[in-house]
UniProtKB/TrEMBL annotation:
Protein name: HAD family hydrolase
Gene Ontology MF: a single term: phosphoglycolate phosphatase activity
Source domain of life: Bacteria
InterPro entries: HAD-like_hydrolase_sf, HAD-like_sf, HAD-SF_hydro_IA, HAD_2, HAD_sf, PGP-like_dom2
Taxonomic classification: Bacteria, Bacillati, Bacillota, Bacilli, Bacillales
Signal sequence region: none
One GO term of the biological process aspect: DNA repair
Pfam families according to UniProt: HAD_2 (PF13419)
Keywords annotated in UniProt: Hydrolase
Annotated PANTHER family: PHOSPHOGLYCOLATE PHOSPHATASE
Cellular component GO terms held in the UniProt record: cytosol
Length: 222
């Protein structure tokens, strides 16, 4: 049986693997990126397996490319950053990418309860802002915080900055990776771990106070 918890002043959400089904936008852009890298002579051989980038979601971009193409030059990695963002933006314009089931409805219900809503993502600023706007949930959020915009070195720092800027005393951190759990715990927040994306590795969600199998389950705990 679920234990209800006091309603927090705010909820902070990771984006990829929590609100947004990232692979529905990412994978077409990923393949297009490597096609162009090969054309530019910056990468040789087959496109690295999709599992490498899916397993790296939630990391900072520099760490993603170290994992996906460890032998590649810095020039290739920087170009990959730009190309991946470009192809994802193009995909959003064409209507690619979907939210997880129940995300829009649940966010509206939380907003209606008076809970302040924020995004805290390790992604690029343009990516985070465009995804949220393109999927029609932008007006529900008080702030969109990304490592790309604030140049934070970890999600712990990003969440700390968000809490201090908005003078938030009680909040939940909602996410699907160990970086989300760590960011919540180290900032004294209740951590709700999303156990439905499938990008995580074993043991990543240890320490979370709540585990949900679908996004709308959040409402059960309030």
């Amino acid at each position: 049986m679920q234990t209800k918890r006091p309603q927090p002043e705010a909820m902070l959400f990771d984006l990829d693997g929590t609100l947004f089904q990232t692979e529905t936008l990412l994978l077409p852009a990923y393949h297009a990126t490597f096609e162009e890298l090969r054309e530019k002579g910056l990468f040789k051989g087959e496109t690295p397996p999709e599992e490498l980038i899916l397993g790296a979601l939630g990391m900072l971009l520099e760490h993603i490319w170290q994992r996906v193409m460890p032998e590649a030059s810095m020039e290739a990695r920087l170009q990959a950053d730009k190309l991946l963002l470009h192809y994802q933006m193009e995909g959003l314009k064409q209507g690619e990418g979907v939210l997880y089931d129940g995300v829009a409805e649940t966010l509206k219900a939380l907003h209606a309860k008076g809970i302040r809503l924020f995004v805290a993502s390790n992604g690029l600023e343009d990516y985070v802002k465009h995804v949220v706007q393109a999927k029609g949930i932008g007006e529900l959020f008080e702030g969109l915080y990304s490592a790309g915009e604030y140049q934070t070195k970890s999600k712990v720092d990003l969440v700390k900055l968000l809490l201090e800027t908005h003078n938030i005393q009680s909040a939940w951190m909602v996410g699907d990776r160990s970086s989300d759990v760590e960011a919540g715990l180290r900032n004294g927040l209740t951590v709700a771990a999303c156990d439905y994306a499938g990008f995580r590795e074993k043991g990543e969600l240890e320490g979370a106070h709540i585990r949900i199998k679908s996004f709308d389950e959040l409402l059960v705990y309030l």
